[in-house]
Design a protein that fits this description.
Distance between the termini: 122 Å
CATH architecture of the largest domain: Beta Barrel
CATH superfamily of the largest domain: Ribosomal Protein L25, Chain P
CATH class of the largest domain: Mainly Beta
Strand content: 25-35%
Strand order of the largest sheet: 1-3-2-6-5-4
Number of strands: 13
Number of domains: 3
Number of helices: 5
Shape: elongated
Oligomer: single chain
CATH topology of the largest domain: Ribosomal Protein L25, Chain P
């Protein structure tokens, strides 16, 4: 396992202009906090932080920040990137105590080909890609591997079915959260919906042909009312005569 040591220097200037000057020197601003100490503003090399992010454990890597001849065990808590080029702009580091558990998020890796994909023509839908866990800093796994080989069409795999790599890890994500499922391809769903709509329209048309038009019924009723009115008028005329 590679051990990372990041050289840091303290900084007192803050603000956009100060940060711009730092980046001109090939550094980025950061803050170290945690472990009951006051937060310390630092400047670090973005290249060293990028190497950590590209390692197997990524942002959950436990490493040392060395400043003023002293080392502090930290984990990368937050970082910001430039939207277009993806360059690191800022990084926050959380100092940890090796004997106290911390909460982190770890990536999920799916392995195997679901039977619902291989034999039933479905598609794998990877829904939840991270799990929130609690453990000692030294027990943080690089990732959590989940086997989806037995997942059938229309079935869901939930967090409650995930096996953690160690019994020293506590799962914080809710048990009923769906990790992955095998679904029917959207083209087939759309075709089925279209067929159902056409069938419903055909049934409606058949029903309309068998029923007496409402306008005709109204016309008949109006006609009957009109005839009745004429008959009463004839009777009145006879009496007057």
């Amino acid at each position: 396992m590679v051990e990372f040591v990041v050289a840091a220097e303290s900084r007192t200037e803050t603000g956009k202009n100060a940060n711009r000057r730092l980046r001109g020197r090939g550094l980025i601003p950061g803050i170290v906090y945690g472990a009951g100490r006051n937060a310390v503003a630092v400047a670090v090399s973005p290249r060293e932080i990028t190497d950590i992010l590209r390692s197997a454990s990524g942002e959950n890597t436990l490493f040392d920040i060395e400043m003023d001849g002293k080392r502090r065990k930290v984990i990368l808590k937050e970082f910001q990137r430039e939207p277009l080029k993806g360059q690191l702009l800022h990084a926050d580091f959380f100092e940890v105590a090796l004997d106290k558990p911390i909460e982190v998020k770890v990536h999920i890796e799916l392995v195997g080909t679901p039977t619902g994909v291989k034999n039933q023509g479905g598609l794998l839908d990877f829904i939840t890609r991270e799990l929130e866990i609690e453990c000692l800093p030294t027990d943080i796994p690089d990732k959590v591997t989940v086997d989806v080989s037995d997942l059938e069409l229309g079935r869901h795999l939930r967090v409650s079915e995930v096996t953690l790599p160690s019994d020293r890890i506590t799962l914080l994500t809710e048990a009923d959260v769906v990790v992955a499922s095998v679904v029917t391809p959207r083209a087939e769903v759309a075709a089925t919906e279209e067929e159902e709509a056409e069938a419903a329209a055909a049934e409606g048309a058949e029903g309309a042909e068998g029923a007496e038009p409402e306008v005709a019924a109204k016309g008949k009723a109006e006609g009957e009312g009109a005839d009745g009115g004429t008959e009463k008028k004839d009777k009145r005329d006879k009496k007057e005569k």
